[in-house]
Amino acid sequence: MEQEALERAVAEMENNEVFAMNPDNLMRAGEFDDGFFQTKAIKGFEELGVRRTLTTQKFLQSLAQKYGVCETKNLLEGRCYSNATLPCCKGTEQIKCDRSYPFRSYDGSCNNLKHPTWGRRGNPLKYPIAPCYSDSVSKPARSKSGKPLPRNRVLISDVAKVLDDTRSGLTSKMSMSTVFFSEMVNGDMIGRATKRTRKPSNGYRGCVAGGSDRSSNVSPLTNPLRVQPDDRYFGPLGVRCLNFNPQEKANDRCELKYAADRNLESSYLDLSILYTDEPQYDDQGKLKLFQCGASEAIAESEPISVHKIAISGLFGKLHNYCVDRVGSCPKSSDRHSVRERCRALVIGVYQKIIYEQLLPFLFGKELYERCGLNCEYNPHVESAVSQVYKSGPGRFQHIWIPDQMMYKPGGQSQWLPFNVFFHDHEQFECTAALAGLVESPIQVGRLSDAYVNIFYTEDGVHGTCLPCIDLGRNREAGLCPLVTLKHYIEQLIGEESKCYNTFEDLRDMFSPEFTDLLKQYYESPSDVDVLLSILENRRYPGAKLPKLVSQVTCLEFKRLKCTDRLFYTWNPYLGEGARHLIKALDFTALFALFTDMPDVPLEPFIVDGPRVATSDVRSYVKSLDYLFCHL
Ligand code: HEM
Ligand SMILES: [Ca+2]
């Protein structure tokens, strides 16, 4: 079986290469979703891992077919053997770490000295509980009776309609800068690995151009979503098909277990998105910066808004600012040490903003305290992101996407459609984008058109449905239903857990109108997709996220902090100067130092908050210059 699986894996990879060579199968410039499913290249050294992952996946699929779900589950859950791997793939990788090296590696390896590969770029995510595929390895989950789950776009479009009809007219004071900063943090812990071939691409086509039908060329590189002719938005436009490209899994050691998605970033909050594996430094140790101060990798990635480029750019600029300051210190250090000390400082400032500013703001006091973020370094836990977070509740903040955002060139306010910021980035000015961002509130109470119908649009009319992609990811990863995750979390944190027998029981989580909608679509309350936790009504006091989402988020950020040997609060290699600078520098300082705004927000996570003159902040930071000589 293994031999057969290998042959099928090799054949599939070869076919993918052939598919990718045909220009008819590639997205073309001018189409609205060109770039949306951008893929990186499988590099030479990664090829073996990709092949082994695919071989194991094929092997498990045949096993499930031959022996049935129960037996396969027993094997995958370790009840037959522990640590079984396919024989073709034995032997462990040896990485040697220099235990006294004071800086981070660029791919995350050697952060954990006992387990050097933990948290490294390219590793798989982790399933906290076994997935719920109907065949236990890869076929989509079904409802209790065995029927398929509700159709993706039909469900999402109706959810949007129900929220529109019952919209409560809620407003929020939270600013979109919170969302784009969170997005950057998310991108640092999870790098999407859309199924790849040896050549990078701008996305593979599963629909014909314009989306009027599915493409006649089918391939494991695409898995388009169907749209019904009576779709409220897409119907009249003649769109019947939305592109959707599957994720690559990672199981490079051929372990007989549930295979999770590959994470192309290091899980540590180490700005791996900015510094990359191959950072380009000049001979002083400065980063080669592109638009708004971002690295080339960020500026070239898609889909991306100019705001995410500009926010990450603030940290790129801080790196170079630091190198300049260190350069004028009396005692000179070697280049390598200057650049690594500056990098450690920048990562420290960034981690501080996340753990001391962003999370308290999003969680509110009660959850922040309950979450137990005051843990210590724990080398026995693996640094990894959960598959449930990536493909489900972690996407919650997408719900805040508004139809318009402010752009403020030369201090003049203009409201522009959300999606214009995703194209032709060079036309936007960095300060104008950031100045507008902190004055743009998030959307609450309903789902915007920019999110549900015209996401990533170029012409304002043809776009995609981001929540449909989110639901597609939830299902392709085989995530278990909402109530299953709820029971799991409640058990984990020692809370009482109730049963959901009828749809009325769901009223403790959702509004009555929404519960009625779920009843129309699902057979049983225990079938409801976990993604819908993003629409939950329960909240901890003061929290900006719904309860289940916030519990899942708490677990992720707690793990990422406490598995990071070089976290800024306990990194023994940070000097006194770095410690003080990390205390002093925050978003307000970054805005003041690296934008041309005349005054800057003291609380950038909310709109209309207090402001302070930029010149005052600059002179304050200037007075700290001496600290750069003690990093
Ligand atoms: C307005 C800003 C944002 C936009 C435009 C945006 C857009 C996207 C897009 C296009 C994807 C890829 C979808 C896919 O193919 O699976 C994605 C993935 C994701 N987003 Fe967002 N996002 C934003 C903000 C956020 C925020 C604030 C969070 C939460 C902190 C978040 C969490 C996620 C997660 C967990 C994924 C899956 C990880 C991945 O595919 O790399 N996003 N987002
Ligand atoms: Ca990282």
Automatic annotation (TrEMBL):
Keyword Heme included in the entry's annotation: yes
Annotated heme b binding sites: 398
GO aspect biological process, one term: response to oxidative stress
InterPro entries for this protein: Haem_peroxidase_animal, Haem_peroxidase_sf, Haem_peroxidase_sf_animal
Record has Metal-binding as a keyword: yes
Keyword list, A-Z: Heme, Iron, Metal-binding, Oxidoreductase, Peroxidase
Annotated region described as Disordered, given as residue ranges: 194-223
Pfam families: An_peroxidase
Gene3D superfamilies the record matches: Haem peroxidase domain superfamily, animal type (1.10.640.10)
Biased composition (Polar residues): 213-222
MF terms (GO), sorted A to Z: heme binding; metal ion binding; peroxidase activity
PANTHER family per record: LD42267P (PTHR11475:SF134), OXIDASE/PEROXIDASE (PTHR11475)
Protein name, entry field: AGAP003233-PA-like protein
Organism: Anopheles sinensis
